[in-house]
Amino acid sequence: MIDLSINFGGIKAPNPFWLASAPPTNSGYQIMKAFDAGWGGAVWKTLGVPVVNVSSRYGSVNYRNTKMMGFNNIELITDRPLADNLREIEEVKKYFPDHAVIASLMVETRAEWEQIIKDVENAGADGIELNFGCPHGMCERGMGSAVGQEPEVLKTIVEWVSEAAKIPVITKLTPNISEIVYPGLAAVQGGTDAISLINTIKSIVGIDLDSYAPYPIVDGKGTNGGYCGPAVKPIAMNMLKDLAQHPEINKVPISGIGGIETWRDVVEFILLGATSVQVCTAVMHYGFGIVREMEAGLRQFMEDKNYQTIYDFAGKALPNVTEWKHLNLKHKVVAEINPDKCIGCDLCYISCDDGAHQAIALSSDPKNRIPSIIEENCVGCNLCSLVCPVEDCITMVKRDDGIENITWNERTINDDIPVTFDDDRAGGKHHYVPTPADALKHRK
Amino acid sequence: MAEFKRPTSEAEFKKNFKQKKPLMNDTEAYYEASRCLFCYDAPCIQACPTHIDIPLFIKQIHTDNITGASKTIFDSNWLGNACGVVCPTGVLCEGACVYNHQDVPPIQIGRLQNYATNKSIDDQKKLFKPGESNGKKIAVIGAGPAGIACACEARTLGFEVDVFEAKDKPSGLTVYGIAPYKITNEEVLKEVEYLQNQLGFSIRYNSPINSKDQLKGLETKYDAIFISVGLGKTRQLGLEGEDKEGVIGAVEFIEELRMKHHEVKVPAKVVVLGGGNTAMDAASEAARMGAKKTVLAYRNSREKMGAYGFEYDLAISAGVDSLFNVTPIAIVGNGKLEGVKFAKTEMVEGKLKTNMNNTFIVRCDMVIKATGQAKQGHLYDIIDNLDIDSKTRIITNSEFQTSNPKYFAGGDAINGGAEVVNAAFDGKMAAQGIHNWLNK
Predict the structure, then answer these.
(1) Do the Cβ atoms of B177 and B255 come closer than 8 Å?
(2) Residue A102's pLDDT is what?
(3) Closest Cβ opposite residue A65 in set B31, B38, B39
């Protein structure tokens, strides 16, 4: 019997699907609608001293036929009076006592923190999330990512909050920092009960070619926004991994955020150590209904793999994420083209020839557009299999004996690495490359 | 089977002749363009007789550089807009699309092409300008696709160009001979006007060239002459009763239909003779004009038909019936046309034989002969030293130059009847040929 319920640092929820603090959690109406649709928790749009927003708030990066592959916003925290939000928190909890309602908070002074924590606790919130991530607007006023970028300040505020709060505290981190471990560690040292990440990434999603202003345009001008959506998922997962592998930080649970849209995204975040996930852009794109695809997919995955709870596989990919120096240099794969499936677009040929290692040849018969792999040139880089538009047409097949295993680290210890510019041990020393003049052969 | 009501107004005509490749809207074009794989050495380019850089213009459409897309298209094919919809793309670019190999619908290249060029034409975007004058002049005989393409290319090379056209409209079969569901008259004419506005060549209408004196005049006045006269009237079959009223050539029938639309009266029963694409068009058009029964009669088997499969399917879907292995032996009727007498044919030792013992009559009120057009031999006869082949096609070298060095030729006059796109290619290359020859 699959049980999707979670206990996230003391916050209980019927499933790990939470809405991130953002426009979809602006009101009790939206959150009730989300819970009704199947979401297990929601982080309320950040509460604080209400702001004044601008008109034109979102920008998007479209790719090929996909809208909003990347998304950014310059909206600030809630612009609604605190009392209205508190009243709605209370009402939501009345209807959905078992769902997680988490209050995202952002204020300045210790007194403000203490006051607002008391207010949301009284309203019935199950937890608090500290917004140390917002990279636009609020940071100009010393809040949001301005805090997340200063581990010492972050730690101090987490200490204030932890001291004042009776309910669990989640610290939400900004990715706009060179090393995520520092704020992560500061949060744990400050006493946080959990961490969530990532908040949005500072971004300019595009420039209007007539007005020369960045999107979203506010009366001829723009500002950097916070980037999110499917495009940021790889960045988020890497930061999640950094925290989840850290022995001191991983004592607290981590809520994964960043480009999550499908059950696959959810499973990948859990495999990297997240035990709840937060979603915003996908809901802004498709509405709350997408949770049914996530839940069905997660259940199917767990059924197929025979897992009962998400804790059965949480973090299962972490041991396999290592440093480059620990990779086996003897592992060897080469590309194989299935001629029955090949449609002759020859993208593999040109991508390899122009962008990789000149290991794919065209047929000498101009009527035959099926290319072939020059195995001795193939370094097993994957590029051809990545560009191939046909499912399972190019596969990477193993060519090593599976016995030999040597890493850069071991070779370094053995004193067996190239050390001079023309060292005979250069990895590509005997690898074929055409002569420069071959590039101009087509010229008559 | 589709049944078409006889069109009695322009609106009803348009409904019956709904465009097979309607203009794409921006959203459709955006999504369709996004599917292009940008193949290396793309097969679609190779399959296009004018070698348009198709993946490039599709990418340009997708990135909202519509002007650039049009430039890419017109750079290779001066009739790029018309070709987008009149080309048999299924056997050319779209037929070569690699998606076909995975049973995925190919990119709708023709419609994307037409989408891009339409925008530039409607916006009157200036993409081209005449080359610096080289002081030389070219006469073009025939303002069909080959002639227009030659004129455009020659203008970019700095020639002064005068086009002499026998009829009162430019673009030849594109406006007079293409089925109306492939392209409208307005669309054909606006492309030529658009090109003329940019490049400034003159077209003299109602100016057939058919006398030795005229030719001499051209030879004196012009440095080179391009023959793009296409084909002539429908050939006579030599059948008994062929001169009866109601017996009409397909080319003449289609021309009348294109010019007069719903005003053309097609009777209840029509027989179309022939198995080529023109026969399919004529049959399909007769049915769309409200003929109750349209019978397509071809002397050989279905497999031997010259028409593209999709053209035959289109005729059948319009409600046309077909008869195979039948040959007309007489047009019958007491005074007026009453029917066609056919004899069955059969293959005997690889040769088609007519069995005169097996004959029958198909009743009809109209016979459309789509059995081939005559060549413009009367003109070729009066040009000095002009070599033609056994099928009365002008012989040219790879530069489109004829045996009389001052004369170049292209289009149906040299290939005996092909697509608009082939003519467009010939015309463009011939202009370059003339340029090369005069600069030797």
Answers:
(1) yes
(2) 98
(3) B31
- Encode pLDDT of B377-388 as tens digits: 999 999 999 999
Domain-embedded: residue B131: no
In the prediction, which pLDDT does B3 show?
79
pLDDT number for residue A153:
96
- A389 has a chain B CB within 8 A of its CB: yes
> If you count residue pairs, one on A and one on B, with CB atoms under 8 Å apart, how many are there?
34
pLDDT of B440 higher than 60 = yes
Asked if the Cβ–Cβ distance from A349 to B34 is below 8 Å, we say no
- pLDDT higher than threshold 70 for residue B362: yes
Burial annotation A22-61 (CB, 10 A radius, 16+ → b, else e): bbbbbbbebbbebbeebbbbbbbbbbbeebeebeeebbbb
Contact A345/B30, CB-based, under 8 Å? no
Provide mean pLDDT across the span A74-100.
Answer: 97
Q: Which of A134, A139, A342, A348 is catalytic?
A: A134
Q: Are A347 and B35 in contact (CB < 8 Å)?
A: no
Give the closest-approach CA distance of B434 to chain A in angstroms. Answer: 24
- Residue B118 sits in a domain whose CATH number is 1.10.1060.10
Compute the nearest-CA separation of A242 from chain B (Å).
36
Residues A396 and A248 in one domain: no
Cβ distance A65 to B39 less than 8 Å, yes or no, reads no
Of the pLDDT bands very low, low, confident and very high (cuts 50, 70, 90), residue A64 is confident
**Nearest to B347, CA basis, from B369, B325, B367, B370:** B325
Q: Is A352 a catalytic residue?
A: no
* Rounded alpha-carbon distances, angstroms, from residue B66 to A287, B106, B116, B197, B366: 34, 21, 6, 20, 46
Q: In chain B, which residues have their Cβ closer than 8 Å to the Cβ of A346?
A: 39-41
How many domains does chain B divide into? 3
Q: Which of A317, A346, A365 is the last residue of a domain?
A: A317
Looking at the DSSP assignment, which residues form a beta bridge with residue A72? A59, A227
- The reply to whether B352 and B252 lie within a common domain is yes
The yes-or-no verdict on residue B2 having pLDDT over 90 is no
| Angle (nearest 5°) at CA B269 between B266 and B271 | 95
Using CB atoms, which residue from A65, A341, A389 is nearest to B37?
A389
Chain A residues whose beta carbon lies within 8 Å of the beta carbon of residue B37? 345, 347, 389
Confidence of residue A219 (pLDDT cuts 50, 70, 90): very high
Query: Is residue A443 assigned to a domain?
Result: no
Kindly report, residue by residue over A341-390, the tens digit of the pLDDT: 999 999 999 999 999 999 999 999 989 999 999 999 999 999 999 999 99
How far apart CA A283 and CA A277 sit, in angstroms, is 13
Closest approach of B43 to chain A, Cα-based (Å): 8
Q: What is the CATH number of the domain that holds A336?
A: 3.30.70.20
Q: Domain boundary at B323, B345, B369, which?
A: B369
Q: How many other C-beta atoms can be found within 10 angstroms of the C-beta atom of residue B403?
A: 15
Question: Minimal CA–CA distance to B108: which of B119, B121, B117, B99?
Answer: B99
- To the nearest whole angstrom, how far is the Cα of A389 from the nearest Cα of chain B? 8
Domain membership flag for residue B39: yes
Tens of pLDDT, residue by residue over B93-104, are 999 999 999 999
Distance of alpha carbon A51 from alpha carbon A65, whole angstroms: 36
Residues of chain A in contact with residue B54, where contact means CB-CB under 8 angstroms, are: none
DSSP codes of every residue in A164-226? H-SS-EEEEPPS-SS-THHHHHHHHHHT-SEEEE--PEEE---B-TTT--BSSPBTTB---EE
Is ipTM > 0.85 here? Answer: yes
Q: Is the same domain home to A228 and A355?
A: no
CA distances from A95 to A19, A91, A290, B277, B366 (A): 17, 7, 22, 71, 79
**A384 neighbors A342 (Cβ within 8 angstroms):** no
Q: What is the pLDDT of residue A221?
A: 97
Residues of chain B neighbouring A343 (CB-CB closer than 8 A): 98-102
